UniProtKB/TrEMBL annotation:
The keyword Cell wall biogenesis/degradation does not apply. Residues 169-196 form a coiled coil. Pfam families: Heme_oxygenase (PF01126). One of its GO terms (molecular function) is heme binding. The keyword Coiled coil applies. This is Heme oxygenase. Heme b binds at residues 9, 16, 124, 173.
Length: 217
């Protein structure tokens, strides 16, 4: 029988491809968008990480979700540094969530409050992705808009306290496997479904951003 981490990875593979190849992501990675689009995307991430991290201290004592709450993953402070760089010191006054972002952040917050095991699906979808494809996005952002390597503007993608991302990801998959053994089959299936929902929520945000920043064809 496949490990839970493998089940999750396999189940979300198709949607990963969809997110990765979304028009907005392709345009962003292709260097076809201005820094304004990147800043707008970074703003959307702020809402998602605020939802992921605001309740983290409380979730830390949850028997299933607790082990996932790790200080070295926290991204909100890095996002705020990036936003100050991208938007200026008053970035908070102009920060707005797209409706798709609001829906995504609300669902994360709901899981954090009411369903810690479901929260894991959102945790996995973001942080493991940031540690993986996030590094490709950082590289592209540095080259396209001239941010200093691993500097302000792309700090969100820099995990200062994770020296070996490959080893960290292996450890993370073990945490997933352990969480999978702590719950029953029905709950495992619900988590897999939540993970798919998490990817879909990301794709919805990309779609909205794609509409806001269409390439003048
Ligand atoms: C253009 C954008 C993206 C690129 C180029 C990309 C690329 C990658 C790559 C190369 C990996 C494999 C890393 C490994 O095996 O260690 C990966 C894993 C992952 N990505 Fe992405 N990705 C992108 C977007 C996304 C998005 C939008 C999400 C979800 C929000 C996401 C979530 C994940 C997750 C959860 C994993 C871990 C899979 C696992 O091993 O269980 N990625 N990504």
């Amino acid at each position: 029988m496949d490990s839970f981490s493998t089940v999750i990875r396999t189940a979300s593979h198709e949607q990963h491809v969809e997110a990765e190849t979304s028009t907005f992501m392709s345009d962003l990675l292709g260097g076809r968008l201005g820094v304004e689009a990147y800043a707008r995307y970074t703003e959307q991430l702020w809402f998602v990480y605020e939802a992921l991290e605001a309740e983290a201290h409380r979730l830390a004592s949850d028997p299933v979700a607790g082990p996932f709450v790790q200080p070295e993953l926290m991204r909100l402070a890095a996002l705020e540094t990036d936003l100050a760089h991208l938007r200026g010191p008053d970035w908070r006054t102009t920060l707005t969530a797209l409706p798709a972002t609001r829906a995504y952040a609300d669902r994360v917050a709901e899981c954090a409050r009411e369903w810690p095991t479901g929260y894991i699906a959102h945790h996995y979808t973001r942080y493991l992705g940031d540690l993986s494809g996030g590094q490709i996005i950082r590289d592209r952002a540095e080259k396209t808009w001239g941010f200093a390597r691993k500097g302000d503007g792309v700090r969100f993608y820099v995990f200062e306290e994770i020296a070996n991302p490959a080893a960290f990801k292996r450890g993370y998959r073990e945490l997933l496997d352990r969480a999978g053994t702590a719950v029953d089959e029905l709950e495992r299936q619900r988590v897999v479904a939540e993970c798919k929902r998490a990817f879909a929520l990301n794709t919805d945000v990309f779609r909205a951003l794609g509409e806001e920043f269409p390439l003048s064809a």
